Q: What sequence folds into this?
């Protein structure tokens, strides 16, 4: 799916802010045209914009000609206007815009960012329109298509059920009240019975004046109701909110499924070390053992309890990630010394895989940070590099000062991260296709936790491909809190 955005705006400061917000929030590629003429050139050279943000009045296009230009290219147009005139708004919808926002509104920029993301996602949202009036079907279909919805149509309740069976990806249904055969209320009840109501949003439609119709729809299982004739803006607002609820449900379901998977893995992982602790302690208590044997069993208890503590810390950090809170206890931290100590700590683990840890650490680099959290951040990158590095290789670690920020990098020569997976690299539970070279286990939580720590320090963590193959993971932290 194309992910380019076109901004047509003659105020350089405003277009610069908008471009930074769009690219920074969602990672979309953005082109800017400062005039109608520039927009024409860009559109002639590029036809892969999924949306355009258009200033209604430009010096060389004062009557909204830029809007018509974008719409003629079948690109959804989100229009910025300072006008509150009702006739102006109505005219914009007649011209086929996807949406509009007021330049003067405090919420306008936030709304534009939201609607851009919504339009991008709508390419994967399927809507079923059920109405026996073909003209009504066409109006609704065309209105939804300007925001990139995939629309299916049916002219009866029976046909709607067949379309739904053939297209399991349908998540929103707009159902007219009065149809021959199965009417809208009966169809809604049928849909409610055959599909999980959290995965199918239903909006009832009716042009009749019966005041009880909306209640009948809601009681039959509908989520919303609209009276015909309705404004395109109202229809899109209602359908967009349905799509948002579906997205939220799916995201929560995914998080819950992933968490259950992790908890299941944790329960399995607990069994081994806990069994070892129980066996070793039982042997120590119930038998007369030589000192050397006792020492071996005590070492087993220490090793197994360490594994349990590590697992517990991961589970606690997982809760912190999901709760969205990372509490910091700031102090003066010698980051150079901290990293040297962490490298020394993992020398044994590296040697077990015949890896050499090569470090280039600038000395005496200090900052204000939470020492325990920073250790966790460093540990995550070092252990990941060891985990994914092939045997008899090397891992390079560097720390340098760039302006008022400390930059730490860990580079390995492992499998790297596929391009299509890089966007999900720092998401919770993101278990990617790369396999640990020593069969080590992965939870998909380490990098999500690391990002949370970096962000809490007003820093950042990011990835780059290593030249010649492998991965480079960086984190940057400011010197002062």
A:
């Amino acid at each position: 799916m194309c992910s380019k955005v076109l901004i047509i705006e003659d105020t350089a400061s405003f277009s610069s802010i908008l471009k930074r917000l769009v690219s920074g929030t969602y990672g979309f590629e953005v082109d800017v045209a400062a005039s109608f003429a520039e927009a024409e050139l860009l559109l002639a050279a590029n036809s892969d914009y999924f949306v355009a943000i258009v200033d209604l009045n430009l010096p060389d296009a004062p009557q909204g000609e830029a809007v018509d230009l974008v719409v003629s290219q079948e690109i959804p147009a989100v229009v910025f206007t300072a006008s509150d005139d009702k006739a102006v708004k109505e005219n914009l919808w007649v011209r086929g815009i996807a949406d509009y926002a007021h330049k003067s509104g405090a919420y306008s920029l936030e709304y534009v960012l939201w609607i851009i993301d919504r339009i991008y996602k709508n390419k994967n949202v399927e809507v079923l329109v059920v109405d026996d009036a073909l003209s009504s079907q066409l109006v609704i279909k065309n209105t939804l298509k300007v925001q990139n919805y995939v629309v299916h149509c049916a002219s009866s309740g029976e046909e709607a059920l067949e379309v739904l069976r053939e297209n399991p990806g349908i998540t929103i249904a707009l159902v007219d009240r009065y149809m021959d055969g199965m009417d809208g209320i009966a169809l809604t009840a049928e849909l409610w019975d055959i599909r999980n109501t959290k995965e199918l949003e239903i909006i009832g439609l009716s042009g009749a004046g019966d005041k009880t119709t909306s209640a009948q729809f809601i009681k039959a299982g509908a989520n919303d109701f609209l009276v015909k004739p309705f404004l395109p803006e109202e229809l899109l607002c209602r359908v967009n909110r349905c799509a948002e609820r579906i997205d939220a449900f799916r995201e929560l379901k995914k998080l819950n499924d992933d968490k259950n998977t992790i908890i299941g893995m944790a329960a399995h992982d607990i069994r081994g070390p806990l069994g070892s602790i129980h066996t070793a302690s039982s042997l120590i208590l119930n038998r007369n053992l030589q000192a050397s044997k006792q020492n071996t069993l005590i070492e087993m208890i220490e090793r197994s309890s360490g594994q349990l503590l590590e697992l517990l810390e991961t589970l606690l950090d997982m809760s912190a990630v999901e709760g969205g809170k990372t509490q910091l206890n700031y102090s003066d931290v010698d980051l150079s010394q901290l990293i040297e100590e962490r490298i020394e700590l993992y020398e044994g683990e590296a040697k077990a895989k015949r890896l050499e840890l090569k470090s280039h650490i600038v000395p005496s680099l200090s900052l204000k940070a939470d020492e325990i959290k920073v250790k966790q951040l460093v540990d995550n990158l070092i252990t990941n590099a060891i985990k994914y590095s092939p045997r008899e290789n090397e891992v390079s670690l560097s720390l340098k000062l760039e302006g008022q920020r400390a930059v730490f990098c860990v580079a390995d020569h492992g499998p790297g991260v596929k391009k299509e997976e890089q966007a999900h690299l720092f998401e919770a539970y993101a278990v990617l296709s790369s396999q640990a070279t020593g069969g080590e286990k992965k939870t998909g939580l380490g990098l999500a936790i690391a990002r949370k720590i970096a962000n809490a320090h007003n820093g950042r963590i990011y990835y780059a491909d290593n030249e010649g193959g492998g991965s480079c993971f960086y984190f940057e932290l400011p010197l002062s809190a």
